Amino acid sequence: MRSLSRVTTAGVLGAAALALLTGCLGSSGSGESGGQDANRNAEAKKVELTFGSNSVKGGKSSAGATFISDVLIPKFVADQKGKGVDVTVKFQGDGSDDEVYKQKLSLDLSNKSGPDLFQIDGIWVGEFAQANYIKPLNDTVGADGKVDEWDGWKQIPEAVQALGSYNGQRYGVPGGTDGRVLYFNKKLFQQAGLPADWQPKSWDDIISAGQALKKLSGVTPIQINAGTAMGEATTMQGVLPLLVGTGTTVNADGKWLGNNSQLRQVLDFYHQIYSTGLGDPVLQREAKGRDKSFAEFAANKIGILLESDYFWRSVVEPKEGVAKMADRDSAVGYALIPAAKPGGGVKGQDFVSMSGGGATVINPNTKYPQQAWEFLQFMNSADMVKESLDGAAKITQRSDVNSEVLKSDPMLSFVAEKVLPLTQYRPGLAEYPKVSAALQQATADIVGGKSTDQTASAYQKAVETAVGGKDKVASN
Amino acid sequence: MTSASAPPAPAKPAPGRGPARGPARDVAGLGIGRALGFVAPALLLIGAFLIFPALWTIYIGVTNYRLTGVEAVSPSIVGLSNYTKALNDALFHNALWLTMLFVLGSAIIGQNILGFTLAWILRRTRPAVRRTVEGFTLLAWILPSTVVAYLWVAFYDRDGGTLNSLLGTPGTAWLIDYPMICLVVFNTWRGTAFSMMLYSSALQAVPPSQLESARMVGASGWQTLRDVVFPHIRGHVLTNTLLISLWTANDFSPFLLTKGGPNHESETVPVYIYNVALQGGELGYSSAISFLLLIANLLVSLVYLRLLRRRA
Q: Which helix (H) or strand (E) holds A264?
């Protein structure tokens, strides 16, 4: 009895504390401030801004971090000094996995802190907007036309603007975009008797090239990203480009992709590669599998790899790449990703691609919304965008800059001219990351040896849970 | 552990009595007020850094709180639905099962047996040798777990890892093909030093005369262990097993070796909690699982404490 009463006392105390906490949380939750004054501190002569980015000097996206801290910030500070404003901008670089960076930002933003401006993946815009972590630029900076009047918008194509938009409103200024192709190693192709100007016209063409490459010893013929270890890389450089090659998208007619014939077609293709020795299933399951596949490609051990132009610019790039190939320009070939069958791709296309990109947004809780907007305009001016390339070629958000800088790089011109007209963007909807995770799991199951049917029905259940109901999922 | 000269059971107030004022005053001759004054700083710290977060976790565990998306704006209370979700979550069951395997294999069996064997062998060596061996073994325990984890990642590595060169098995991806075995071996190696030190000191409490008599009556090694040594060190065994089991159940190092993969094959509960909270953003659900892990740990502790008390 004694111990029982002790338990009761503890229980009552615990419940009381819990009730107290609940009360506290409730009040803090409802303390949401409605619109703040967009002109707060507009006349300030001493300003401090923090710029957050998932890049770090000497590490992840080093060139970007170096540009921001060594060029962009000093130039902006000097520009402001000319206007009589003493600005300090602190660069808050990060070098984490994208998911970790996102969660760190989310935690900061949910506590109404975080950097004044920060770069995010275009695919997070919807989620962040729904969570009120970011607000339309017109709300943060002021609705008196300041944002819409910016002349930079005219240079940014509509499709690219979508990277920083949600529900038809601009939340941020997009950075560059990208496109996906099939890379191949010309040296291995030559050894296998395959052409140096290879351009597959269907998935069968990819498989037969793989079979020719399989005869070379120590070579993995095809690597198409799969599994959960690679996160979004699996979806963007694997499932989605294949899916659009079957004629559908991950969210078509307002419904999410379920267990349908197109999904099974994609899973079958994975199965064909990873169960017949054309791909290396172990590489897809390793925690550092993507980095390893880069290194193996650079070491002439992988024949065909599906990647974005990032691979060309930052991975096998001869001087700064993470897996440098001194002879990149002669040794690395690239081809358009074919639809499963000619004309079988989305919109009846023969070839397909997916694109992504990021945007820079303003923290609605910044002390200096006007100065943050000035920074954003300065950062996205033609001069700065050009300067950010530091002589390298990259597909930027601005058409005027692209037409000038891409001439020097045949691969990126190829992406800008041939790939971007065929490309698709991911839906900027809050459920997307969960659907993406389910697709990663499905490919992991296939690589792990499960059958297409088993995997597809497990995926169907996962996606129903993820998006909240059968009626939101298209299956047949 | 209570010796014959202990003060008369201060922790057990007589049954059926009123307030415990008398005994409290008796212990150190302090009034309740002054005693509270002394413990207040500790209580404050414990409250702020232990009790408050724990209660907060329990609270978050009954909400649908997420890091992003609509639920981040106004999380609402969803009752016990996170707990019912856990009951039906195959990945959580998988994580529980793997955690049990991890604890059983590396702590309850691995570290105990290896630690005791080392202590038993070292007992007979010269002190200088014993101290040197103990020093080296302790390194494994002292080094930060991240350092040890990365050493083992390199050891198991498919390309150029030491294990493959030792066994002549080039190209074997140990962390992919046998992730749980890799984790059990890793944790056994890392934690053995602690068990060894504990058993080393425990063995010194076994009276040499009893060991000598056992030897005289011709008891076998096993009989000596069972009938002479174990009765003396049973308390140590239980305490050690409790400690290392709890540490292992809460250990996050599996994340450093395998991130829980491939395909959830080495996703123990702490790694699952991390993945749910920080990869999936589901803070509510992950808090509920954290609380379940806490309850499981408490239950295990209770069982051990009961066993210990029975022994006493």
A: helix A261-274
Nearest-neighbour CA in chain A from B160: distance (Å): 13
Q: How far apart are CA A474 and CA A444, in angstroms?
A: 22
Residue A354, pLDDT score? 94
Distance (Å, whole) CA B199 – CA B67 = 46
State the pLDDT at residue A350: 97
- The answer to whether the CB atoms of A127 and B262 lie below 8 A apart is no
Other beta carbons within 10 Å of A192? 19
Q: How far is B18 from chain A (nearest CA, A)?
A: 12
Specify the residue for token string 């509509």. Answer: A158
Q: Quick one: what percent of chain A has pLDDT higher than 70?
A: 93
- pLDDT tens digits, residue range A87-144? 999 999 988 878 788 888 998 998 899 999 999 998 889 889 988 999 999 999 987 7
Instruction: Give CA–CA dist B267/B255, Å, rounded.
Output: 8
Read off the pLDDT band of B263 (50, 70, 90).
Answer: confident
Asked if the Cβ–Cβ distance from A430 to B69 is below 8 Å, we say: yes
For strand A332-335 and strand A117-121, is the pairing parallel, antiparallel, or unpaired?
A: unpaired
Residue B67: which of A106, A227, A441 has the nearest Cβ?
A: A106
Hey, what domains does chain A have and what are their CATH numbers? 46-178+356-425 (3.40.190.10), 179-353+429-474 (3.40.190.10)
CATH of the domain at B192: 1.10.3720.10
- Which residue on chain A is closest to B77 by alpha carbon? A22
CB-based contacts of A106, cutoff 8 Å, min separation 6: A128, A131, A133, B67, B68, B72, B281
Quote the number of domains for chain B: 1
What is the spatial distance between Cα A368 and Cα A48, in angstroms, rounded to a whole number? 8
**Does B91 touch chain A if contact means CB atoms closer than 8 Å?**
no
pLDDT level of residue A32 (50, 70, 90 thresholds): very low
| Shortest Cα–Cα distance, B108 to chain A (Å) | 28
- Torsion angle of C-alpha atoms A424, A429, A434, A438, degrees rounded to 10: -30
Print the domain residue range for B268: 90-310
Query: Is residue B218 assigned to a domain?
Result: yes
A21 contact residues in B (CB cutoff 8 A)? 55-56, 59
Q: Please tell me the least confidently modeled range out of A171-185, A414-428, B82-96.
A: A414-428
Residue B48 inside a domain? The answer is: no
Q: Does B72 touch chain A (CB under 8 A)?
A: yes
Q: Given this model, what pLDDT does residue B311 score?
A: 59
Strand-strand pairing, A220-223 and A255-257: unpaired
Secondary structure of residue B218 in the 3-state scheme: coil
Q: Which residues pair with A174 in a beta bridge?
A: A359
What are A's interface residues with B at a Cβ cutoff of 8 A? 2, 14, 17-18, 21-22, 25, 29, 32, 99-100, 102-103, 106-107, 110, 124, 127-128, 130-133, 227-229, 282, 285-287, 430, 434, 437, 441, 444-445, 448
ipTM: 0.70
Q: Is residue B112 part of a domain?
A: yes
| Inter-chain contacts counted by CB atoms under 8 A, chains A and B | 88
Question: Within 10 Å of residue A79's Cβ, how many Cβ atoms?
Answer: 15
Band of residue B108 on the pLDDT scale cut at 50, 70, 90: very high
Do A133 and B72 lie within an 8 Å CB cutoff? yes
CB contact under 8 A, B278 and A99: yes
Contact assignment for B259 to A25 by CB distance below 8 Å: no
The residue of chain A nearest to residue B75, with distances taken between CA atoms, is A29
Q: State which H helix or E strand residue A91 sits in.
A: strand A86-93
**Amino acid sitting at position A116:** D
Residue B68 counted as domain residue: no
Report in angstroms the alpha-carbon separations of A299 from A282, B256, B280.
18, 27, 35
- Window 218-277 of B: residues touching A by CB (8 A cutoff) are 258-259, 261-263
Q: Is the pLDDT of residue B62 over 80?
A: yes
